Amino acid sequence: MKTNGTSSRHVILSGYSGGGKSTLTAELKRRGFETVEEPGRRIVSQEMRGDGGALPWVDLEAFARRAIDMASKDRESAKDVDGWVFFDRSLIDAAVALEHATGIAAANTLGKTDRYHRQVFLTPPWPEIFVTDSERRNGLDEAVEEYERLYVAYKDLGYEVIVLPRTDVHARADFLLNRLL
């Protein structure tokens, strides 16, 4: 990780699908921080307006490859931003999805990619707030399995995983900001 570079200020919000990442990202934006929307949601929205070939429930590999490309461009776009930048999911999430679809190790996909901030904040499984919609069709069990894959992957890649508390968005944002080193 660059200790003096901007990437050390790029913070990942990852974890459980439907666990409140986008809500937390919106709160951080409201507080004046730079944020980057989840690549997966943007891809699904685009695909639903098009042929749908890269939807995660149609072709997970194609979806993951598009997410890798989009997340890479997101990183490049944020490289010159001063201060904290919060990413709703990341290049690593996309690499873990590709690994799940193809068996290609996330570490191999990432290669020498510049690392994000050493602390990664994960939303834990929270069935009480879990909902599906037209863009999120995975079920509760799939969401838990994804969380477990991400938790292990981030640990294996040498990140400090911090699980966010199950509390309101304001308290979550305060918790996150107080934990950043």
Kindly summarize this structure in a few lines.
By secondary structure, the protein is of the alpha/beta class.
Please render the helix and strand layout as text:
Blueprint (H helix, E strand, L loop, with lengths): L9 E6 L5 H10 L3 E3 L2 H11 L10 H19 L6 E4 L2 H12 L3 H5 L8 E5 L16 H17 L3 E4 L5 H11 L2
Parallel strand pairs: 1-3, 1-4, 2-3, 4-5
Helix pairs in contact: 1-7, 2-3, 3-4, 4-6
Task: Walk me through this protein's architecture.
The protein is an alpha/beta fold. Strands 2-3-1-4-5 form a five-stranded parallel beta sheet, sandwiched between helices. Helix 6 links the parallel strand 4 and strand 5. Helix 1 packs across helix 7, helix 2 packs across helix 3 and helix 3 packs antiparallel against helix 4. The longest helix is centred in the middle third of the chain and has 19 residues. The radius of gyration is 15 Å and the shape is globular. The N terminus is likely disordered.
Overview features:
181 residues; alpha/beta; 5-stranded parallel β-sheet; 47% helix
Shape: globular
* Rounded radius of gyration (Å): 15 Å
N-to-C series of helices and strands? EHEHHEHHEHEH
How is the largest sheet built, in terms of strand order? 2-3-1-4-5
Mean pLDDT: 90
Beta-strand portion reads 5-15%
The main sheet comes to: 5 strands, parallel
Distance between the termini: 14 Å
Number of strands: 5
The low-pLDDT segments are: 1-5
Enumerate how many helices there are, as a single number.
7
Q: Classify the helix fraction into a percent range.
A: 40-55%
